[in-house]
Design a protein that fits this description.
Blueprint: H1 25-47, E1 56-58, H2 65-72, H3 85-92, E2 98-106, E3 110-117, E4 122-126, E5 129-133, E6 139-144, E7 155-158, H4 176-191, E8 198-202, E9 209-213, E10 217-222, H5 227-243, E11 249-252, E12 260-263
Parallel strand pairs: 1-3, 4-7, 7-8, 10-11
Antiparallel strand pairs: 2-3, 4-5, 5-6, 8-9, 9-10, 11-12
Length: about 270
């Protein structure tokens, strides 16, 4: 009996085997592990290198470094990334003597605060109460008239008729024109370095401002225009009169560069 064997044409090879796919969750787990690792590194950095080190303060004079840092809210461990100017400004606004100007951050853990302090410059009396102001009209203190002598050297602001005087807030004068005249006049007196020579600034009529020195020279300045020239002229003339032995008198100084002087009657 003859036997038949299938030839090549009748042979079918099995299909190639593909390697099994790795489970999809393996990639997810790897990515999750990387995220956890990065987070852990950030936490370690935040707890070590990125914690704010001793804060630098620029501009404080009467206030100590500790007082400024505490007012800013940086007296406890703070992350470099969470420190921001808005928070510091809000924290420091609670102290009406301190003004926050700006902040500089130096990576990874340095912060410098720039501040300035409000300085008592003038006094106002109203209804039995005395108010202490800075050059912007911020009310720094109040007390009953005659109950405090720490501010005796400050000049008085008269004729103001204030609407509202509250500690920690800018005063509200009788009129907007009075407020602007106050700022302009006080700013110029400070700039020319004669605050300790002035006993009174009168703002009753913003068109007819006048000042009185501690040695009883009264200078009428007119309105708040050209105050630098007017006050500068008054300053020069009073210095000359003092050197000549005069004591007090009236000055008409509403024209820049000109003064008409009338001595006190004998």
């Amino acid at each position: 009996m003859s036997q038949q064997y299938p030839g090549n044409s009748g042979f079918m090879a099995p299909p190639p085997q593909t390697p099994p796919k790795a489970p999809a969750r393996t990639g997810v787990m790897t990515m999750l592990a990387m995220v956890v690792l990065i987070f852990a590194i950030l936490v370690i950095l935040n707890e070590t290198m990125l914690k704010i080190q001793p804060v630098a303060v620029v501009g404080n004079e009467r206030f100590t470094w500790e007082q400024v840092v505490t007012a800013a809210g940086l007296d406890r461990p703070t992350s470099y990334f969470t420190v921001n100017e808005q928070t510091i400004r809000r924290n420091m606004s609670a102290s009406h003597y301190l003004v926050f100007e700006r902040m500089e951050k130096q990576f990874p853990n340095r912060v410098t605060l720039y501040v300035h302090e409000r300085t008592p410059i003038a006094r106002v009396q109203d209804m039995g109460t005395e108010f202490v102001l800075d050059e912007e009209g911020m009310v720094l203190e109040n007390f009953a008239v005659g109950k405090e002598d720490a501010y005796d050297g400050l000049m008085y602001i008269t004729g103001l008729k204030p609407k509202d005087m509250r500690v920690g807030q800018i005063m509200q004068a009788g009129t907007v024109v009075q407020t602007e005249a106050f700022k302009a006049l006080v700013r110029e007196v400070i700039l020319q370095g004669i605050t300790d020579e002035i006993s009174e600034l009168n703002l009753a009529d913003p068109e007819n401002l006048y000042l009185i020195t501690v040695d009883q020279y009264t200078a009428h300045l007119g309105n708040a225009e050209n105050l630098r020239a007017k006050i500068g002229t008054v300053r020069a003339v009073t210095a000359y009169l003092r050197s000549e032995g005069y004591h007090g008198g009236m000055m008409e100084a509403n024209i820049p560069g000109e003064v008409i002087y009338s001595p006190l009657s004998p």
